[in-house]
Amino acid sequence: MERITWHFPPAISSRKLTRESEQQLFYQLAIEFSDILNRNVQINNGLPILFEDRVTLVHYQAKQFELTINLRKDPEPIVNISQLSVQPQNQGLGTKIVTHFLRRLSDTSYERVILDTRNDEDRRFWRSLGFKPSDRDWHLDWFFKIPH
Question: Does the keyword Lipid metabolism apply (predicted)?
Answer without folding.
Answer: no
